[in-house]
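ok trying again, last paste got cut off:
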Amino acid sequence: MVVLLLYRPITHYLVFRCEEEDVTLTTEALNVLTTMAMQTTLRYALNLISCAQVLARKRKVENVDVEDLRRAYTCFMDEKRSVQWLKEQQGSLMFEIVGDEKDAMDVSS
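nice, full thing came through this time. structure:
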């Protein structure tokens, strides 16, 4: 019940944003985008709209489909996936190699 109460307003807002950005989503893509917004953040889902439109244009089609959303989803991480990726990469990122501030600031060597 709570999910349905959240689903409709998010869907309406996504439709509004698509109209503002002149993006046409298929019905299935709108449902997937609404689900993404509920599982991640609305901001992330809104950013996927324009990315998916670019991918759809590259395929030379008018409407954004689920395929375009999924591809955009794999190209750009939401906050939760970004945090998970950073945890997995912990200790292997370049900025973690630098010792203390004094060593990082010393460029004379």
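cool. The two ends are 64 Å apart (CA to CA). The CA atoms of residues 28 and 53 lie 15 Å apart.
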